[in-house]
Amino acid sequence: MPKIVILTGAGISAESGLGTFRDKDGLWAEHRIEDVATPEGFARNPQLVVDFYNARRAQAADASPNAAHVALARLEAAMPDNVLVVTQNVDNLHEKAGATNVLHMHGALDSALCAACDHRWTAPLAMAAGDLCPACDGPTARPDIVWFGEIPYYMEEIEMRLNEADIFAAIGTSGNVYPAAGFVQAAAAYGAMTVELNLEPSLVVSQFDETHFGPASQTVPKWVEGLLNV
User: E.C. number, please (predicted)?
Assistant: First the structure.
């Protein structure tokens, strides 16, 4: 049974109504990335940042997984312990679909983080600037999101799993954001077969052995079906 590492990006959640920061409308279009997705932006105006993520959290809470999320959860269920989803997304649509082996390398909307003691807890639907940490009682709560300029979570574990992978697939990713954009090169160096499933070619498409283009809700279930019927 092959060991499979799957990287998912904003493209897999787009069909569930969650926009990306490259969309021309939606939440991201109303703000500069520097203002709402950097530590410096949070330091300048914490309430603006908290309000932005409150809106994203509410949007994600109302969203439902699509056929691509469901297909990946089905793949995991069919291959216990052999499928890992590494997601750049901060929504919980993989979990809503039934996946359990998911690493959120860029954090999660439903989690809060203490900037002082690193304690984590379930975020309320609406956070406020200056919320108290339940562990140290400091007014230092922030969204548990990896902002630009910060180090993604789980990098050591991801590197280990890429090393062991027989198949690496990237779904709905642009190839713009590192270190995730470099995962295909790392997996290939370790001997994995690499697959891109995307609405359109990513910036690193030439590094993949196999490509499938189209909406994730169509390409991903078909790809999973092929794996399960081998």
Answer: 2.3.1.286
Using alpha carbons, select from 2, 16, 22 the residue that is nearest to residue 174.
22
Q: Is 11 annotated as a binding residue?
A: yes
Q: What's the CATH architecture for 1-17+65-106+152-230?
A: 3-Layer(aba) Sandwich (3.40)
Strand order in the sheet with 141-145: 120-122, 107-114, 141-145
pLDDT score, position 214: 97
Residue 61 has pLDDT above 70, yes or no: yes
Question: Is 206 a known ligand-binding residue?
Answer: no
Stretch 163-184: mean pLDDT: 95
Ranges in the chain annotated CATH 3.30.1600.10:
19-62+110-145
Q: Is 151 known to sit in a ligand binding site?
A: no
What pTM was estimated for this model as a whole? 0.93
**CATH T-level assignment (fold) for domain 19-62+110-145:** SIR2/SIRT2 'Small Domain' (3.30.1600)
DSSP 200: S
pLDDT at 192 (0 to 100): 98
27 vs 224, which has greater pLDDT?
Answer: 224
